[in-house]
Amino acid sequence: MSEPELLKQVLKPLLEDFQYWFARSRSLLETENISFLSTQEQADLLERVKFAQQEVSTAQMMFDATDGRVGIETATMKPWHQLVGECWQVAMKWRKLKHNDRES
User: Hey, where are the domains in the chain?
Assistant: First the structure.
């Protein structure tokens, strides 16, 4: 498999995954009051998600414009991975608390 084909098979879906998880996280942060986060913490997390979405969109545009011939440095994607993990933790804790509230 050529390098551009490999990039298209691996990087394109990865960027789409980032967009998916950031969109879900953004929706949660914009529509719900996350009780275990302060208002400022929730706002800061939302701003980081919005910024990451912009970065991923830019990377996707560059990738598409070069027909998949340009990759992305791991160092660029590492913060996105960390942010997705942080968002997952917030979402899991929020769901657990919401579930516990329903049972009470």
Answer: 3-103
